[in-house]
Amino acid sequence: MLAERAFASGRVRAVGYAALGLLVLLGTQPNAVASGVVIGLTVVAAALPQWRHALGGRWGARFVRLPWFLLMVAAAVMASTRFIPTKMYVINSHVRATWALAGSQAATLFDGSWLESGSVVVLVLVGAVWLARDRNRRWLVVSLALFIAIFLLLYAVNGPVVRQLTWLWWNDHYRVRAALVLPAVLCATAGAVVIGGWVARRRPDPPRVRQGLIALAAVAVVAALGCGIPVHREVVEATYGEDSADYSWVLPREYAALSQLAAFVPSGSVVAANPYRGGMFFYVAGGTEVLYPTENSPQLPDRRLLGTSLQAVTSMPDVCAASRRQRVDYVLTGGDMHIWGVLDHTPEYSGVDSAAYDPDFKVVAEAGPYALRRVPDCSTAAPGSGFIGPVTIP
């Protein structure tokens, strides 16, 4: 839209859409912002000729050009390195693959048989060639090429300089590979249109035949997509299931233990579980409802209070009331602090972890490193002392 309506009659609409896009990006994960910036930069680069023509004048003709734009982007990237947290130079620095493996994964956009995945790749290539010939749509091909290049550099090289570019993705090649699918799907759609039009022109009723072929191609793409996007499966099976708590959200033995303990939680009950100890996978492993669905769940008042003070549920009326409102009948203790949780988030869930040292929290079942405990009845909670906050775990 920006490429076709730059500074023209659709200026107000373009600005409105751009503002809406910025608001959406501000509410998303940093890796989504980084992916959006990559695509946005390619759109802006494609719109430069229209902007140069619309602005006119000597300054517009001289400075609204691709080399100056690329220089500005490079300067912005260099300036951003001053704000990179130190830990971002280390996280996922251990992940590195051969160029052959990285290349094969970049080309394998979707799971399925060789025929299904190969058909999608053909559609992507045909669509990319067709789009590359259209100046207003060329940005799609450029964005696909950029994501492939970033993925290959991150997965096959993964050096300090590369991590200065990929830190908003947490230097996680899975996140970049997932973003790569976005322009690839659009290229595949364009490829279906091209092939459908080419076949339709050789039939007696081209418009109807073309519509039917496009619909058939769309069904084929959906069928291939139905087999799954490999990166989603691999994220669960590999990175988030490694044998070291330093680089994984949940260990294989912890995931197996969560599956076993889920059978002891009745329907309608909520479990307070430290997400940094693998607790957020309780729902994934066994369908158990948890108080903290992810490590980024909004810290609403009840969640924050229970996280820091659940161990005081029998003595603090406020904590008791919060546990009842949230239906917290069980607490999960044990497990290792994963990723950076031990550095940044120990106080947030100290009340949950402290339940392991309170005999009033009776053990219901144990499996692996975990213990599922029953939250004690707090109907006779005594008036609080006025202080509710983190406690020191012995």
TrEMBL record:
Membrane spanning stretches: 12-28, 34-51, 63-84, 114-132, 139-158, 178-200, 212-231
A Pfam family per the record: DUF6541
Sorted UniProt keywords: Membrane, Transmembrane, Transmembrane helix
Annotated protein name in UniProt: Uncharacterized protein
Organism ancestry: Bacteria, Bacillati, Actinomycetota, Actinomycetes, Micrococcales
